[in-house]
Design goal:
The complex is a heterodimer of chains A (341) and B (459).
Chain A (H helix, E strand, L loop, with lengths): L7 H5 L5 H4 L8 H13 L4 H5 L5 H5 L6 H12 L6 H10 L7 E2 L5 E4 L4 H6 L12 E3 L15 H17 L4 E4 L2 H13 L7 E4 H11 L9 E6 L12 H9 L2 E2 L15 H7 L1 H17 L4 E4 L2 H13 L3 E4 H8 L8
Parallel strand pairs in A: 2-3, 2-4, 4-5, 6-7, 6-8, 8-9
Antiparallel strand pairs in A: 1-3
Helix pairs in contact in A: 11-12, 13-14
Chain B lengths: L2 H10 L4 E2 L2 H6 L14 E3 L4 H14 L3 E4 L16 E4 L6 E5 L4 E5 L4 H11 L3 E2 L11 H6 L7 H4 L6 E7 L5 E4 L31 E8 L1 E2 L3 E9 L5 H10 L5 E6 L10 E9 L2 H14 L1 H5 L3 E3 L6 H4 L6 H4 L7 E6 L2 E2 L4 H15 L2 E9 L4 E11 L3 H20 L9 H10 L2 H14 L14
Classes of the chains: A alpha/beta (341), B alpha+beta (459).
Chain lengths: 341, 459
C-alpha cells in the first residue's frame, strides 16, 4: 500500500504555520496553528480533524513542499472521523466505482481525459479541440479519485489511482490532456505525494487552451467583457497554474477585475461545504462570494470546474451574472458560441 | 350481426362499437403480468345517456361490462375476466367547469390527467390538481376509482379524498349524482354533511357503477417548486426522519425510496422532499426548516442531504418520466408493482422484504413509498421490472408480487389497486361482518353481477 510522503521536520521547523493560519474556515493565531498542525502530524487528536471543511487550501498555503491537507485526511481516516455523513461518503464511493462502462475514442499517443464528467465530453469539441477530441477517454475508469479526499477516504484514492493510471497506460498514451483540474492535480500532486508513478505526461487543459488560442488568434474577436472567476478547490493543488486564467482572458479580450475572494483568498463553490458543514456555512460562503463577484461589475461568472458550475450557475444567474465555462468563453471569442448564451 | 352488436351500434353508432379481433385482442390485456382475456365487444360512448343505455342493455342481457380509462393500472383491473363489453371512456373527455374561487373542477369520466393539467396551466395558472406519477393519458375517474395517489397526497390525502362530487351510472342504468350536485348546481362536496355515498363507488374498481362525471378539488399552484433529498443508510431511521419532516406541516410531497442501481443509490434510503412557495424567500425558509428538522441525523453522521443539482430537472418533472425508464432496465419494457398502504413505522420490515423477494425471485427492483396525509400512512410501490419477451421472468415477477401482497396483509397493511387474486387474499383476511357488508352493498347495487365481474367478488 502506498503511504504519504510527509516530512515531520518541515512542519516542526515551519516559521509561518500558514497552512492553518490562513485557513478561511478555522480561526487560529500563529502559535495555535502550529500546535494544532503538530498534533495532526503526531497523530494526536486536534480540532482540525473535526472542523476542517476540506477546501484544499492548505495544500496551496504550504510553501514548504509538505502536504497538510492529505495528512489531515489521512489522520481522519485513521481515526474513523467522517467529514460528511456516512451515507453521503459511501454514495460517492459507490457512484464512482469502475463498472466497465468507459468510453474510449480513437487514441494513439494522446488522450483527452474527460474524467467522469459528461459535460467535459461536449465541451472538448469544436475548432479548439479538433485534433484531440476523437481521443476522448471518459468514465469511472479514467476518473481521478481526488474527490474522496473531501470524505477523508484516502484509502480509496490509494486503491483506485494506480488502476486509473494503468488504464491510461493500457491505451498506450504518452500524454493525457486533463480537462479537469482535479485530474491534473491528482497526477502532479497526489500521485507524487504517495509515490505513485505516472508513466505519461499529464497536460493541463489551460496550457493546451492557451496554445490553441494562440494558433487561432486570427479568429479571435475580443469579447470586451468583464468577468469574475470562480476558482475551484482542486486548483489549490496546482497553484503554479493559476496565472493561466488571466493569460487566457487577456488573449480573448476579457477583463478580470480584482476582487476580495480570488487567488489565494478564493472561496469554494460550497457544494462540498454543504455536505460537510451544513447549509449555514455554505449559504454564507456563497452569498459572500457572489456579492463580491457582483460588486466588480462583472457580466459573466467564469467557471473552470463543471461541478462548481453546476452548483453556482443558478445562483449567479439570479444575481445577474451569466455562468460560463472558460472553454465556452474561448469558443465565444472565436465565434463558435453565441455571446451571452 | 349479433343482436347485441346491433343494439350497441344503434345506441352508439357504428364507429363507436367493435367486435373486430384486433381490437378485442388489444382490449383484453394491460401492461402488467396478468394473463389476457378478450372482451366480446368494445364500445366508446360520448355521453352519459349513451353510457346509461349501454348499461341498461348489459343489465337486461346479463352481459358483463368493464369501464376503462387508459388501462394503465397494471394490475389487470380492466381485463374483462368474464368477457362482455369493455367500455372505453376516453371519448368523454370534456372539462365541464372550473370554479376558480371554490377551487374545484368538474370533468367527464374519460378526461385524462394531462388534459386537466394543461387546461389549468392555460386557463387557471393559480390552480393545480393532485397529479399522479403516471402517464398523462391516465384518467382522473379511474384514478379516484382506485384510491389513487398524487403529488398532493401528502397534504390532502388520497386523490379519492379530493373528489368533490360524482355522477355515476349505476349497474341498473340509473344516473345518480353524489354529494352537493345531488342538491344543486355546485360540486363542492362529495358527501358532508350528507351521508357520504361516495364510499359506495370510490375504491370499488368499477364494480358498483361507471363514473360519468367527477368533481375534483383543486389547490393553489405556487410559483416556485423545489426539493431536497435526504439519504441515510440506516433503514430504521426512515420513520423518524419522516416524522420530523411531516411535523413541519409545510411540505408538498415526501417520498422514501431505495434501489440498487445505478450505483449511486446503492445501500442508501432516500427521502425526496418537495416544497413550494410564491417567493424565493418562502422557498429558502422552507429549505432551512427542512434542513434544521433533520440536523440531529446529520450531526450523528447517519444521514445527509445529497447533491441533486444535475438531477433536479428530472426530479421536478410532473409526472416523472424517469419512472417509466425503470421498466426498460432488463430490456423488454415491463414493470408492475405491489402497492401496500401501511404504517410508516413498518418501512424497515417492508424494505427487508423487498430485498429478500428480489433475491429470491432473481428480479430487478425499485421501491418507493409516498407519505399519505401528513404521515398517517404511506403507500408503497414495490416495483419489479421484466422483459415482456421472457415468460419465465414475468412468472417470477408475478410470484414476487403475490408474495409481497401476502406479506403486506400479514403486516396489517392494505393492498392498493389489488388484482383479482389479491382481492381474494384480502377478502380472506377480512373481518367476516365487513365482508358481509361488502357483499350486501355489491348485491344491492349490482344484482345481476354485471359490473367488472371477477373483481371484489365475494364467493
Amino acid at each position: 500500500m502506498y503511504t504519504l510522503k510527509f516530512d515531520e521536520n518541515v512542519c516542526a521547523t515551519c516559521p509561518s504555520a500558514d497552512c492553518l493560519l490562513k485557513c478561511q474556515y478555522m480561526e487560529f493565531d500563529k502559535n495555535e496553528a502550529h500546535e494544532e498542525m503538530m498534533k495532526v502530524v503526531k497523530g494526536e487528536n486536534s480540532s482540525v480533524l473535526h472542523d476542517c471543511v476540506t477546501c484544499y487550501a492548505c495544500e496551496e498555503y504550504c510553501h514548504r513542499g509538505n502536504h497538510p491537507y492529505y495528512l489531515i485526511s489521512e489522520r481522519r481516516e485513521e481515526k474513523g472521523i467522517l467529514t460528511a455523513p456516512r451515507p453521503i461518503t459511501n454514495q460517492w464511493i459507490n457512484m464512482t466505482q469502475m463498472q466497465g462502462k468507459q468510453s474510449v475514442g480513437a487514441i494513439e499517443d494522446r488522450a483527452m481525459s474527460c474524467c467522469f464528467l459528461a459535460e467535459l465530453v461536449s465541451m472538448g469539441s469544436g475548432e479548439i479541440f479538433k485534433d484531440i477530441a476523437p481521443a476522448v477517454a471518459f468514465g469511472a475508469e479514467f476518473m481521478c479519485p481526488a474527490v474522496h479526499t473531501h470524505f477523508a477516504k484516502m484509502s480509496v484514492i490509494k486503491e483506485r489511482l494506480p488502476v486509473v493510471i494503468d488504464n491510461f497506460v493500457k491505451l498506450g498514451v504518452k500524454e493525457v490532456i486533463c480537462l479537469h483540474d482535479e485530474c491534473y492535480g491528482t497526477y502532479t500532486s497526489i500521485a507524487p505525494a504517495y509515490g505513485i508513478g505516472v508513466p505519461f505526461k499529464p497536460i493541463y487543459y489551460m496550457d493546451f487552451l492557451i496554445e490553441r488560442m494562440k494558433d487561432l488568434k486570427d479568429k479571435i474577436k475580443p469579447l470586451d467583457i468583464k468577468v469574475a472567476y470562480q476558482r475551484p478547490c482542486s486548483n489549490r493543488l496546482i497553484p503554479e497554474k493559476l496565472h493561466l486564467v488571466k493569460d487566457i482572458l487577456d488573449l480573448i479580450g476579457v477583463e478580470l477585475p480584482d476582487r476580495e475572494y480570488q487567488g489565494e483568498n478564493c472561496l469554494c463553490c460550497a457544494e462540498i461545504l454543504r455536505a460537510v458543514s451544513g447549509y449555514r456555512l455554505a449559504d454564507d460562503v456563497q452569498e459572500r462570494n457572489i456579492a463580491d463577484m457582483v460588486q466588480t461589475g462583472a457580466e459573466y461568472c467564469v467557471f473552470n470546474c463543471p461541478a462548481c458550475q453546476s452548483t453556482l450557475s443558478e445562483k449567479v444567474a439570479k444575481n445577474g451574472l451569466k455562468p460560463v465555462h472558460l472553454i465556452d468563453l474561448c469558443k465565444m471569442a472565436i465565434g463558435e458560441k453565441k455571446k451571452g448564451v | 350481426m349479433s343482436d347485441i352488436l346491433q343494439s350497441l351500434t344503434e345506441i352508439l353508432g357504428e364507429r363507436a362499437v367493435s367486435n373486430r379481433p384486433e381490437e378485442l385482442w388489444f382490449y383484453g390485456r394491460d401492461p402488467g403480468v396478468l394473463d389476457s382475456h378478450p372482451p366480446d365487444y368494445v364500445v366508446a360512448p360520448r355521453t352519459t345517456e349513451e353510457v346509461q343505455r349501454v348499461v341498461q342493455l348489459a343489465n337486461r342481457e346479463k352481459i358483463p361490462i368493464v369501464p376503462m380509462g387508459s388501462g394503465m393500472a397494471l394490475t389487470g383491473l380492466v381485463i374483462p375476466l368474464k368477457g362482455g363489453i369493455v367500455m372505453d371512456m376516453k371519448r368523454m373527455n370534456r372539462i365541464l367547469e372550473v370554479n376558480e374561487k371554490a377551487r374545484y373542477a368538474v370533468v367527464e369520466g374519460g378526461t385524462s390527467q394531462g388534459a386537466l393539467k394543461a387546461f389549468l396551466e392555460d386557463n387557471h395558472p393559480g390552480l393545480r390538481h393532485s397529479l399522479p406519477d403516471a402517464p398523462p393519458t391516465t384518467t382522473i375517474a379511474a384514478n379516484v376509482a382506485l384510491h389513487g395517489q398524487g403529488r398532493l397526497t401528502h397534504q390532502y390525502g388520497f386523490n379519492s379524498d379530493m373528489v368533490s362530487g360524482l355522477e355515476v351510472v349505476l349497474p341498473t342504468g340509473d344516473i345518480c349524482k353524489i354529494g352537493s350536485p345531488s342538491l344543486g348546481p355546485y360540486w363542492f362536496s362529495k358527501g358532508p354533511t350528507l351521508p357520504d355515498l361516495s364510499g359506495l363507488f370510490l375504491g370499488w374498481l368499477g364494480t358498483t357503477g361507471i363514473f360519468t362525471k367527477v368533481g375534483l378539488k383543486l389547490y393553489p399552484n405556487k410559483k416556485f417548486r423545489d426539493l431536497e433529498m435526504f439519504v441515510t443508510d440506516r433503514v430504521e431511521l426512515v420513520a423518524d426522519i419522516i416524522y420530523k419532516l411531516t411535523h413541519l406541516e409545510m411540505l408538498e410531497d415526501v417520498n422514501a425510496w431505495f434501489q440498487p442501481m445505478p450505483l449511486m443509490f446503492k445501500d442508501n434510503y432516500h427521502i425526496t422532499i418537495y416544497f413550494t412557495g410564491d417567493t424565493e424567500e418562502e422557498i429558502e425558509f422552507k429549505r432551512k426548516m427542512v434542513w434544521d428538522s433533520l440536523q440531529k441525523f446529520i450531526d450523528a453522521k447517519d444521514g445527509g442531504f445529497m447533491s441533486i443539482q444535475p438531477m433536479k430537472p428530472m426530479l421536478l418533472e410532473m409526472p416523472q418520466r424517469g419512472i417509466a425508464a425503470f421498466a426498460d432496465v432488463p430490456k423488454g419494457g415491463g414493470f408492475e408493482y405491489s402497492g401496500p398502504i401501511t404504517l410508516i413505522e413498518h418501512f424497515p420490515q417492508y424494505a427487508a422484504k423487498v430485498i429478500e423477494l428480489a433475491a429470491k425471485y432473481d428480479v430487478i427492483y425499485a421501491c418507493s413509498a409516498r407519505v399519505i396525509s401528513g404521515g398517517h400512512s404511506m403507500m408503497f410501490a414495490i416495483s419489479f421490472a421484466f422483459n415482456r419477451a421472457d415468460k419465465a421472468m414475468m412468472d417470477r415477477v408475478k410470484e414476487a408480487l403475490d408474495e409481497a401482497t401476502e406479506y403486506a396483509l400479514e403486516m396489517g397493511g392494505i393492498p392498493w389497486k389489488p388484482n383479482f387474486m389479491e382481492q381474494k387474499m384480502t377478502m380472506k383476511r377480512m373481518d367476516p361482518n365487513t365482508l358481509k357488508l361488502l357483499q350486501m352493498v355489491k348485491k344491492n347495487l349490482d344484482p345481476q353481477g354485471i359490473m367488472n365481474p371477477g373483481n371484489w367478488e365475494v364467493s
